[in-house]
Design a protein that fits this description.
Blueprint: H1 3-15, H2 45-64, H3 69-87, H4 95-120, H5 124-139, H6 152-168, H7 172-183, H8 191-205, H9 208-221, H10 226-238, H11 245-255, H12 260-272, H13 276-289, H14 294-317, H15 321-348, H16 353-365, H17 369-381, E1 396-397, E2 405-406, H18 420-436, H19 444-450, H20 453-475, E3 485-490, E4 495-499, E5 505-508, H21 515-521, E6 527-536, E7 539-548, E8 554-558, E9 616-622, H22 635-648, E10 657-661, H23 665-682, E11 687-693, E12 696-698, E13 705-707, E14 721-722, H24 723-731, E15 737-743, E16 781-785, E17 795-796, E18 801-802, H25 803-815, H26 821-839, E19 847-851, H27 854-857
Length: 865
Amino acid sequence: MTKKLLTLLLLLLSAAGIVATATLPADGADAGEPVEAAEPEEITPDSLLNKALETFKELKFLKFEGEPLDVVSPKAYQTFTDGCEAIAVQIPDSREWHQVKEVLRDTQRDLLSAAFFYSKAGNQAEMTRYAQAFLDVSLLDAFKDEAVDLDSETLAMIAYISASGAYNEKNYERAIDYFKIYLTTGDDKQREQVYIFMAQSCLQAGQWDLGIATAEEALKIYPSQKHILLIGMQMCIDGGRGEHLQKFLSRALELNPADERLLDIQGKLFEDAGEYEQALGVYNTLDQLRPNSLSTAKHIGLCYYNQAVDFFNQAINQSDEKTAARMRRRAKNYFASAADKFREVLESAPTAVPYLRSPGVCYLCLEDKYNFEKINERLRLLREDPLAEVFMPPSMTYNGDGKENFATSQGSALKDAPSYSTFGRDYITSRLGTWAKKGEFEKMEDYNERVNQTTIRAEYDKLKKEAAQKYMDEYSTRLRINDLTLQPYDATNEVFKIVSSYGPVYLRVPLKNGEAEQFKDNWKTVRFQNPKFFIDDDSVRIAEITFLAANGKRYDFNNAKAINYSVPDIAIDFSSIIATPASGSERRGDSGKVYIAAKSDVDENIPETKKKAGNKLALVIANENYKNVSKVPSAFADGFAFSEYCRKTLGIPEGNLSFCSDASLAEIYDAMSDLQRKAGVIGPEAEVIVYYAGHGLPDENSKEAYLLASDANPTNSRTWFKLSDFYQTLSDLNARSVMVFLDACFSGAERSDREGATIMGKTGARGAVIKAKEAAPKGNMFVLTAASGNETALPYAEKNHGLFTYFLLKKIQDTKGNVTLKELSDYVIKQVSHQSNFVNKKPQTPTAVTSGRMTEMWKSKKLVQ
């Protein structure tokens, strides 16, 4: 090719905006002459961009020259890999980002051609590699909102080839991505196999929720597909998703009702759920299929026994004597059946201590002293402690591995219980969404009258009470005597502390006449009755309980916290479950309409940790709706999302997290007082995180910065919260560290893209933008604020977040919280400063300031330690 033609090609590519600047060799220069080795170029976003553009230029040159596909294809693959590296480090929506995106879009067609070329050549490995690369372009974040430009039949074929290759290489996560693409095509030729292998890939990759959803979807189309049923059950078991197991198991038993393995699983599922009568029905069927099975006999005996214990304990909890008597009769019937079955077990396993103790308890509850004593004699011969003559029977478990035991571990009653906030949130959101849905024949004016701010709150309050009652009904009935552990006696106050998963009980037992000693010595014979419960600290707690000693004395406990009990509030993102039935383009504003905000990428796939940060406290204030000034768009979404990251990613326990939305001044003071109380309980190791999204405001005269409560009077600074006082209160916590994130500005401007808009615009008061005095942090404090000086904290409307909060959450999401405060600040400052000019056409520069030990600590301190 002549230099003239090459120059023309470069000019054409440069005009298209897709090549880097290139310099041709000087006239007469020998392109083949050796040159000195250059220093290794530093890898930067610009260097990766130039590399991708240079490779793309070479690809275009080869195609212009008419080189064959076996020459062009490797260069296309190199362009693809260079392009992927480059786009990953560019700022989204920047000019450079779009430049690389066009390179990848153009190269994608070459990758497809290469896949077909190697298919015809019979080279399966290369065909698969190029097919995967073709799809990988579409899987990039830059292309996630674009459909693949290919007919469905061809796309299905490419996806199937790619997924098969990844699956055979045991790259299951990659295979899942390709299987997903196949399932969008509507192609049916390989659909059944795709469902099977996608479910299997989810099983291997540990993507339990996706795998279960895939299996459920597949069974709607192929209800008798046994492989899907088995994989679905395995995912429920391996992934700890027992709540989904029954639906797969029921279908499998419909297809094969005499399958012993399935019956074993079904019986154990009922047994683990405490549904002993249903479990007995299954185990009796198994007993007929395998009459000499010791394992089945054990399960039958334990189900009779545990059902008897349940009736026995229900009788204790009954205040009505007739009902209690009926429960006791039923308990005796089941104890008798259990004793008979345990006799069969002991014939085969005469030294199995648990199966000696269990019938011993049965005989005791049946008042059969003769057989009770015989059991104790056998226990003594085995050098085991005999059973006490008066005590409350514990439940018993069978693990199938010879480790049958009484359930004696303290705190086991609520081990699988969700927190109240989790339970309540699920209960309320599902029902509130159904209630708020516009009926097909409901007029718009009728709907707006039925669903508005007042009625939403009323419906929420009703559902909150229902959720609390159902939570207590579900989990308060599990209290057993073996859940209660007696602690050493406090002689000064004459009190025993009794610990359980239902919270501590402080029981006053007099020291006089050896009463306390007797109570302790006879603890195993103590019974309880009439327990009452309430919700506190995000769980079920004992409100009242009476203990009965063997000598007939009663000891009552009344929890002072339950005296003025009211059902706790639960943080609910109303905007995500209540939608305007109209176009959905209007926000909730002065019109009273309700808008369902689209969730952004930071609202989904929130990283979760299993570690709990018990020394961390978080206070989140999200003020979106104000009585006397303009609203702050997306502030609720900001605060709600931040609280979710605190809970899920940072591992802050529910009881340590406070979320306040549209908080009044009084509510902010209350929240700060509550924070002080909790920090005092934890002590000097407490770490505090405070987040605020809402209005900030400078005093016109003093220029002092203030936070605005939702009920603030914009003309009366006494209704505002001075920022310096806010910092002082946090400093007074004497915490090890305080981290503050403020998505607010203090210039008086509103979070809006309206030029010159101020928060006073709603009242007609002054509208000048003022530069506030900087309030210095105090104590061991780190503060990251959304804007500097007289700048505005701007929105990121398409993400339904503040610009500052979006990038704050994005970094936490990407790093799973494994990021230092300095790294987090640097990222947020860079991204917000850059994006504010692209998104809002205004400057916004976050600032980070520190004080005390945090001046050095912030460089190494991570959100997740």
